[in-house]
């Protein structure tokens, strides 16, 4: 069935491709944050363990919103590890770093998702796609605030 929501198919496709990159970055950051939650040690254990849980829970919930927006635009949302690996800008961590390095990596991850989201914004604005622009604005606020809070732990 044709989709006629007032956004040209080529624009919907470009936006969906951009949102797929945001989804992949969000999933990679989710996995990293959850792993750090499980594996953090040291004198800040309780604080970081709880903080990481709040962060990965927020990221998990965001995945659904991003994927559903891609679907509303008429395109399939990526959903495999190989698709995410091809689309993400976030470096995978296969070891268990010290707590301070975990924090640094999460700052970098949140900043990376913000950059990826910001790249999609002009396309959404030009296409008059307010729902995507709103979603991206919300994501930017969350990632920028979370990066700031994590950076504060490194001061």
Q: Layout of helices and strands, plus pairs?
A:
Blueprint: H1 9-39, H2 45-72, H3 81-87, H4 99-126, H5 130-152
Helix pairs in contact: 1-2, 1-3, 1-4, 2-5, 4-5
Account of the 3D structure:
With 155 residues, this protein is mainly alpha-helical. The protein is built from five helices and no strands. It has helices at 9-39, 45-72, 81-87, 99-126, 130-152.
User: What is the CA-based Rg, rounded?
Assistant: 16 Å
Summed up, the helix count is: 5
Q: Summarize the helix and strand pattern as letters.
A: HHHHH
Q: State the low-pLDDT regions, or none.
A: none
Number of strands: 0
Averaged pLDDT, please?
97
The CA-CA distance between the termini, in Å, is 54 Å
Task: Name the shape in a single word.
Answer: elongated
Q: Can you summarize this structure?
A:
By secondary structure, the protein is mainly alpha-helical.
Key terms for this structure?
5 helices; elongated
């Amino acid at each position: 069935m044709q989709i006629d929501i007032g956004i040209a198919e080529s624009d919907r496709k470009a936006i969906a491709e951009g949102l797929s990159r945001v989804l992949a970055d969000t999933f990679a950051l989710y996995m990293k944050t959850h792993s750090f939650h499980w594996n953090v040690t040291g004198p800040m254990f309780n604080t970081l363990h709880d903080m990481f849980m709040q962060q990965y829970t927020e990221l998990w919930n965001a995945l659904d919103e991003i994927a559903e927006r891609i679907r509303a635009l008429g395109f399939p949302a990526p959903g495999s590890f190989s698709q995410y690996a091809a689309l993400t800008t976030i470096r995978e961590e296969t070891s268990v770093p010290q707590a301070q390095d975990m924090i640094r990596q999460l700052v970098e991850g949140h900043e990376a998702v913000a950059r990826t989201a910001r790249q999609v914004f002009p396309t959404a604005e030009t296409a008059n796609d307010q729902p995507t622009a709103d979603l991206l604005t919300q994501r930017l606020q969350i990632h920028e605030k979370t990066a700031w809070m994590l950076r504060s732990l490194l001061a």
